[in-house]
Design a protein that fits this description.
It is built from 18 helices and 36 strands. The chain has 724 residues and is an alpha+beta fold. The strands form eight sheets. It has an eight-stranded antiparallel β-sheet. It has a seven-stranded mixed β-sheet with strand order 2-3-1-4-5-11-6, with helices on both faces. Strands 28, 33, 34, 35 and 36 form a five-stranded antiparallel β-sheet that branches. Strand 34 and strand 35 form a beta hairpin. The radius of gyration is 32 Å and the shape is elongated. It starts with 18 loop residues before the first helix and ends with a helix.
């Protein structure tokens, strides 16, 4: 998210807004009960962004809908989004519907940007799953439904793209029931004329929203007798589903006994069941024609919960001290969380903040706390800063605001230390919100500055990018000295590189070097002679060593077998230093030498010309000579890998692991998620595994890895790997 100025529309939007509506959505609501925070969830291409555009237009927040192809949507203003023509970052799109402020959180649908989606879930109080009426429901969306279920998040389903020639509401509903369960029930049934959807039959109200005139605001009329008869079965199923969730246990008996249950009972029970996450309404929509958008807005307002109805994240005092559980009270202690961070060339760092408790005010002193993400390259940090610029965001547009109450979302600029996941609290009462779970980035990308002059700019820009992206891990490999960006996949890596280049950094990717090691495959002897004479004191050191391999992981042993003091004690230490230094540089392919025993068995000194430096050089020469006379074995890192996949992919995954030189160590049940496969796999074979596993399993597989040991590289692969 970025903005050209604090009061203007982002560059390139080409959009008009209703000033009165825009001002209303920028003004703080009267209380948390007048707020709905709704995250849009669904596979890439399901239609989330255009559905958001249609809702904004219907609510009067914009004068017309934008276009993904033209790069004019309010949510997709990031250059990477315009280039890729899909969402890659979280964006907030608030609008007023009647007297309620709805904060729509548009999230990416592609799995590379799961971090942005998780941030949207953290900031929201309910989820609207967007399912295409044309395409299948992918496994990632099904898994996300289960994730929402585990935390009790209220959900509804919008079946989108009903204007498409191949669209089928009935087929899409069947797919929803298969993926999400039988508790998803339509509130409206589409009415068709030929292949066109011309209206929606409200199953509870018995009315029809007639869209046949092509207007986005339908004409509402009573359903005709034939329409009522056609919908009778669906209406009965819906009513039974609502009654099953009612707290009035007598309702079902009354309904089955033939009593007509009034709308004054059904509507409140429906709203209660949706708000507590036990019933999931389905709505039919088309962003292109406006079909179902008014009905969807009404459902968001009436059935989705306010922030008052949701449990807040766990909070503690700094460094583990206890703190009382917060409530969504504008008068309570301040506790907010940075759910997204970006960098704007004019405004600097821009932070989206969900305020969970208290009121965040302009020109107030706050405490910024970031703890628990040190393993992602975000060291723990604390600082006090003054809020000098508080805004109400609308996509990439930032509008000045004076305060933000509990339950609402705002944007802060000029907060230099804040990063995604940080807690914003009062200076005199600092708090720490437990970070949400982030996926582990498992695809390495090696980068380097194109020129020496770009190195400082790369380091500075990379720190800015990493501050806003907890799914990105930056590592300087101690063995290969490469700068590694651990990403979620190719698209994530592309976005990260685009952001670096967008900040003027000339950066290029290079092959990832696997940190190999070397060892001796058999015993060998080495003679180190370092004798130089160039006027004055010369250099004289001679040593003889024996080298023998040790077991894997044994490390290095140095044994002194000098007899008769032919090499004085201090120079023996010098020989060891020289051997160790040469081991670090390698003796064959430039990789560190490990798992050997070096025994010093003889040598000569000179009373004047021998020195510490000379014997260090002799020790290094002796090891190199021993290596030249022996066979050097390359060792490659091997990881312990655990892969979780649905049962139907187990065979394919096992075959693929065998092709990667993997060794299967076991399989087990994954508690309803399929199978868990354990294997030992060379790290060289895992460089692109995050991408390949996703392709192999249709996006359903996931894995974790941990370094295990170094094993010998097979003879056929040694030459190729040594020259990488």
């Amino acid at each position: 998210m970025s903005g050209k100025s604090s009061n203007g529309t982002a560059k390139g939007s080409g959009r008009g807004t209703d000033p009165r509506r825009a001002e209303a959505s920028a003004s703080p609501p009267e209380g948390p009960d007048r707020i709905r925070n709704v995250v849009l969830v669904g596979h890439s291409g399901a239609g989330k962004t255009m559905l958001a555009e249609a809702m904004l237009a219907a609510a009067g927040a914009t004068n017309r809908m934008g276009s993904i192809a033209d790069g004019t949507t309010l949510s997709d203003s990031d250059p990477s989004e315009i280039h890729q023509q899909r969402s890659v970052v979280l964006s907030v799109l608030p609008f007023m519907y009647d007297d309620v402020k709805v904060n729509l959180l548009d999230t990416p649908g592609y799995s590379d940007f799961t971090g942005e989606l998780r941030a949207g879930l953290r900031a929201a109080d309910a989820a609207l799953f967007v399912v295409s009426a044309v395409d299948d429901i992918d496994a990632a969306t099904t898994a996300l439904w289960g994730e929402c279920e585990s935390v009790g998040m209220p959900r509804a389903v919008a079946i989108s793209r009903l204007d498409h020639p191949r669209a089928s509401f009935e087929a899409a509903l069947a797919r929803c029931r298969q993926a999400f369960g039988d508790t998803v029930q339509p509130l409206y049934l589409p009415l068709t004329s030929g292949t066109d959807v011309t209206g929606l039959h409200g199953l509870l109200s018995g009315t029809v929203s007639d869209y046949s005139e092509g207007e986005r605001q339908p004409v509402v009329r009573p359903a005709e007798a034939a329409e009522l008869a056609a919908a009778e079965e669906a209406r009965g199923t819906l009513i039974e589903g609502i009654i099953a969730e009612s707290e009035d246990e007598s309702l079902m008996d009354r309904y089955l006994g033939g009593e007509e249950i009034g709308l004054d009972v059904l509507f409140p029970d429906l709203e209660t069941a949706v708000a507590r996450g036990s019933f999931y309404p389905v709505l039919a929509t088309s962003a292109e024609t406006g079909l179902g958008i008014p009905e969807l807005l009404d459902m968001l307002k009436r059935a989705f919960p306010s922030p008052l109805e949701r449990r807040l994240p766990t909070v503690a005092g700094l460094y583990g001290s206890r703190a009382s559980q917060l409530s969504c009270d504008p008068e309570g202690p301040l506790a907010g969380e940075v759910v997204r961070t970006s960098t704007d060339p004019f405004l600097g760092r821009v932070c989206l903040v969900r305020v969970f408790s208290g009121t965040l005010r302009d020109d107030s002193l706050v405490h910024i706390s970031g703890h628990g993400l040190a393993d992602r390259g975000h060291p723990d940090h604390d600082s006090d800063e003054r809020v000098t610029h508080l805004h109400a965001p609308l996509g990439s547009t930032l509008r000045a605001a004076s305060y933000c109450i509990a339950g609402d979302i705002c944007a802060l600029t000029k907060i230099g230390s804040a990063e995604t996941g940080d807690t914003v609290s009062a200076k005199d009462e600092p708090l720490l919100i437990q970070p949400w779970e982030m996926p582990e980035p498992l695809m390495p990308v090696a980068v380097e500055a194109a020129t020496r002059n770009d190195e400082a700019a790369l380091a500075k820009s990379l720190a800015k990018v990493a501050a806003g992206d907890p799914t990105l891990r930056v590592e300087r490999n101690a063995e290969t000295h490469q700068l590694i960006l651990w990403c979620m996949g190719e698209s994530h890596a592309e976005v990260v590189l685009d952001r670096l280049r967008g900040q003027g950094v000339n950066v290029r990717t290079v092959d990832v070097v696997t940190p190999l090691r070397e060892t001796f495959a058999a015993p060998s002897n080495g003679h180190g002679r370092y004798v130089k004479q160039s006027g004055g004191h010369g250099q004289f050191a001679i040593c003889d060593i024996e080298v023998e391999p040790l077991e894997r992981g044994a490390g290095f042993e140095f044994v002194d077998k000098i007899v008769g003091g032919v090499i004085p004690g201090p120079f023996i230490t010098s020989v060891e230093k020289g051997v160790r230094a040469q081991m670090g540089k390698g003796v064959a392919a430039g990789f560190p030498v490990v798992d050997i025993r070096v025994t010093l068995v003889g040598g000569k000194t000179h009373s004047v010309d021998s020195s510490d430096a000379a014997f260090q050089s002799a020790g290094a020469l002796a090891l190199r000579e021993a290596a030249a006379a022996a066979r050097i074995q390359l060792l490659e890192p091997v990881s312990a890998v655990t892969i979780t996949v649905p049962d139907e992919y187990v065979g394919a995954v096992m075959s693929d692991l065998s092709a990667r030189r993997g060794r299967l160590t076991g399989t087990d049940s994954a508690e309803g998620e399929g199978a868990e496969i354990s294997a030992e796999v060379p790290e060289q074979e895992l460089l692109r595994y995050a991408i390949d596993l996703r392709s192999l399993t249709g996006g359903t597989g996931r894995f974790r890895r941990a370094y295990l040991r170094h094993d010998p590289v097979p003879t056929g692969a040694s030459s190729e790997m040594a020259h990488r």
